[in-house]
Every structure is written in structure tokens, then in C-alpha cells.
Amino acid sequence: MHINIVMEIRFPRALLAMFVGACLAMAGSAFQGFLKNPLADPYTLGVSSGAAVGAVAVLFFGISLPIIGRFTLPLISIVAGFLTLFLVISFARMVQRSMSAETIILAGIIFSSFLGAFISLMIALTGEELRQILGWLMGSVAMRGWPYIWMILPCFLIGFFLLFFNRHELNALAFGEETARQLGVNIPVRKLMILLGATILTGGAVAVSGTVGFVGLVIPHLTRLIWGSDHRHLLPLSMFVGAGFLTLTDLVARTIIAPTELPIGVITSIIGAPVFALILLRQRRVSS
Question: CA nearest 55: which of 124, 184, 151?
Fold first, then answer.
């Protein structure tokens, strides 16, 4: 009896929290390194909102594609996230040809706001699916089970290898595109691979856990402060720190007002917002 509870409920829940935390932290590290901006993460760039719209649409319309079955949710989330990122970059290019990091982030915030309104519209129109969608949007890894592990595992593996394969290119891009080009980096191809890897990680995480904020923003900062900005180390270390952070956060969400469970996204926001504020204050003092 106890073994069944551990193997069918507790262990897959902890494992899922680790995968989600690892995916979001690695995606945040890649986006911040790619744009050379501390505010870049899957949420400020609109990728998470796009993935959330895709997932909510699957739940709202009850979509199930033939052959892939239960993998419909992560697949549509990834496609929606990548489409949103494409629209964000296209809009940023229209506003400013050089596409500064600030312009891309502002474009991402605009699209996030619009997509958030679209999600609210679907919630307003829904009926019996309302509770499921609202619970999913607040972020949770509770009662997911092994099928959700099999959903996120391919996303984690593909995204990790795409980013880790381009770790040297991320270091080169940190010095600017011109320097990276002189070092022999194929800029368009490498950019696409990095964006694709980060989007796959984000889409997979959002599909299985809902919206979990601040992990992709705060964890890369903490990891960078302790171990430096070399992406050869930053990517795997962010993965481990993110996995550990979200596992502990889920433990807090499950036990702080037991037997009632809080959504994990609420806890990450409560912890993440002040921590990020302290990091920004520290960096401002160091720079001044």
C-alpha cells in the first residue's frame, strides 16, 4: 500500500517538479544569455503565455490529435509558444530594425498581455472545464502521475541537447554578433537552435504544470552570481538548481497549510519576487 502511494503519487510528483524546474531554469538562462538582458525569461518574452494559450485551447476544445494522443497537449503548447516568439521578434523588428533586447522584451510583454486577455475570454466562456483550467493556470504538479513524466521527458531531452550543443555559441554571442561571426559562429542557424531549444523546454514545462513564474528569471541570476556566466557551466548548474528549487517549493506548497495544498505558482511568485528585487538592488550597488 505505502509502496504504491510512493511510486504512483509521491515519486512522480517530485520527479515532475524537478523536470519543470530544470526546463524553466535552462530556458531562462538561454534567453538571458541570448539577449544579454537580465529581464529576459520565458514569461517576459511571451513564450509561456503563448504555450499557455495552446494548452488552454486543448483543454477548452478537448483537442486530441490522432496517433500522438496524450502528447497533443505538449505539442500544441510548444507550437503555440514558438509561434508567439516568432510574432514577438517580427513585431520587434517592425518597431526597431536593430531589435535591441529592450524592444524584444517590451514586445513580449505586449503579446503576453494580449494572450492573457485571450485566456480570460476562454475562461469566461467555459462551463464545467472552468475549475480544471483555473487550477492548471495557477501552476501545480499535484496528481499528475507518470503520463506527465512521459510528456515532459522528450521536451527536456531535446531542449537540453539543443542548448548544451550551443553552449560555446552562447558564450560567443555574449560578446556581440560581430565578435561571434568573427569566431566562426553561423549566427542565423545557431540563433534558431537556441530559440527552438528554449521554446521546447518552456512549452513542455507549461504543458504539464501550468504557469509557474519566476523560476526562469531568478534561478539563472542566482546561479550566475555564484558560478559565473560561462554557459558551459551555467546551463547544467541552472538545471540542477532549478530542479531542486521547484522540488522544495512544491514541498512547501503541500505542507505549509496542510491538508490544503497551495498552487506551486503562488509559492514561486511569493519567493521569487523579493529575491529578484534583492538581486537587482545588489547589482545596482555593485555597478554604482
Answer: 151
Selection from 18, 15, 28 nearest residue 234 by Cα:
28
Give the position of cell 550551443: 166
Residue from 200, 139, 150, 193 nearest 170 by CA: 193
For the chain, what is the total number of helices (H) and then of strands (E)? 13, 0
Cis peptide before 38 (omega within 30 of 0): no
**Domains present along the chain, CATH in parentheses:** 2-283 (1.10.3470.10)
Among 48, 55, 5, 1, which residue's Cα sits nearest to residue 28? 48
pLDDT of residue 273: 84
CB 42 within 8 A of CB 109: no
- pLDDT mean across residues, the chain: 86
Q: Is the dihedral of CA 142, 22, 12, 70 positive or negative?
A: positive
All cell numbers assigned to 147: 503520463
Nearest Cα residue to 172 out of 159, 158, 191, 157 = 191
| pLDDT for res 165 | 94
Q: Which pLDDT score is estimated for 27?
A: 95
Whole-model pTM?
Answer: 0.89
Segments of the chain scoring below 50 in pLDDT: none
* Entry field: residues in the chain: 288
